[in-house]
């Protein structure tokens, strides 16, 4: 119940108790002035706490309730601690303290009520008889019961309204989460995360940053599109995009867009581990995609797709403009710049299964990845020829200690990455290889 209404109800009950006490000659006649005081005090408190400088005071309702406790205690002491009216006033005050401020407010309320009662008793003494007349006891009980019941009813209604509001908030929250997850499908996870955590504002804004840019497309896709039905082709393309997206996200790449059978990914925004680490992650992703493509080719071949699909990739590192481009009502988070054009050009020049990188990228990753010099090319926007390199493999995977092996022939395909094989799987793989070797030997005999 709002403080004003609750205080009016309590003090009206107190005025009724005083009036009855005067009529039964239980209270001293001079206490009659407390009746208008009790009826006016709630309105005085309302004006003080809402229209004066007190309204800026912290926890003003708690402080005013303690003042009520002191006033109530003084009244109890003044009437000489007569049992029923004293208990009535104390119960209303203690109930209010517990409802408004919990145990802490209740303890402070008892303290101020005790202080007020002590002052009242010191000034007027204890009544000769602590027993109240029947009419006074009845009015005291009715006043207390009415106050507690009405206050409890309001608290119950407030609790129900709060539960309803909580349910609505929870429903809206679940709806917002569901909607945000649906919208996240149209954005790169890094971009979606930065927007919904408040790290990035949705406005037309760009900045210059050093990024690593990746382009890829499928060699032979045009021929395949002429051989397959549109529904089957769509399923194959979606499977390819899904697999490559998982690889990109594993290395922390920001997926910019899918165009036809092409993928554009960049590293370095919205999160970056530094130009060197971003470039290494980008090239590592490309190597992993090339290996992963071999697995998918085997699966597609088992599904009757005979066209040998391979991807070609181009990577460039350098400063680009990244951010939100477009209009206020339709934006696209992407990158522009000559390094983007260079990466696209490298992808178009690459042979099937080849990864071509720019000199800037090569200089950042050459200590961990073996590359082969491919000469120079002329690219629009660059004043001089651009040196390019072909990615061979990780240096750790070259030589006799390499973890990756592959071999393909008509009727045979093998892909082995020993670093990813768990110990309990090795015996099954060895048995399968031995059975395959025995079968080949029998065919030779």
From TrEMBL:
| Domain of life of the source | Bacteria
Question: Do you know which InterPro entries this protein is assigned to?
Answer: A/G_cyclase, Adenylyl/Guanylyl_Cyclase_3/4, MASE2, Nucleotide_cyclase
Keyword Transmembrane tagged = yes
Kindly list the residue ranges recorded as spanning the membrane.
7-24, 30-48, 69-94, 106-127, 134-155
Q: Any coiled-coil ranges, and where?
A: none
Please give the CDD domains that the UniProt record associates with this protein: CHD
Name of protein: Adenylate cyclase
Q: Which organism is it from?
A: Marinobacter nanhaiticus D15-8W
